[in-house]
Amino acid sequence: MSQALSLYRRLVSLPGGRWLYGRLICFKAPYFATIAPRFRALEPGCCEVAIRDRRHVHNHIGTVHAIALCNAAELTAGMMTDVTIPPGMRWIPKGMTVEYLAKATGTLVAVAKPESPAVEAASGYAWPVRVNVRNEGGEDVFRARIDMWVSPRKAA
Length: 156
Known about the structure:
This protein is of the alpha+beta class. The protein is built from 3 helices and 6 strands. The protein has a 6-stranded antiparallel sheet with strand order 1-2-4-5-6-3. Helix 1 (3-11) runs antiparallel to helix 2 (17-28). The two termini are 19 Å apart. The model has no long low-confidence stretch (mean pLDDT 95).
């Protein structure tokens, strides 16, 4: 089990544990703090992260900024990848394709799921992850496809 998943499972049942988990992830990767993520679910094959609609993430028309949505997608896809791939593998985002489908307002929930099972391999491979971001009404406002580069860990 990955360290990220082990920590999540320890904290999730504690009062404020989900908030603390999000803060710890943002300490490790500070840029994600710009969206103040709240983890709703984390397990192999799925990650859900909520972001609140607040002025800090707004664009000039008062909706959630496109790059804040990309940030949520990358965080969600990365965490899902981290807890899903075999322990002998590592990952890094290689590319992202996005679609803006509707104005993003209100609390938004990003859900990341892989397109195929992760496998142990002797060489690196592209592993596509789909992320849908929905508003409070369940409408998709944003979609992303992120190609993760999954490769064997280097020997110590």
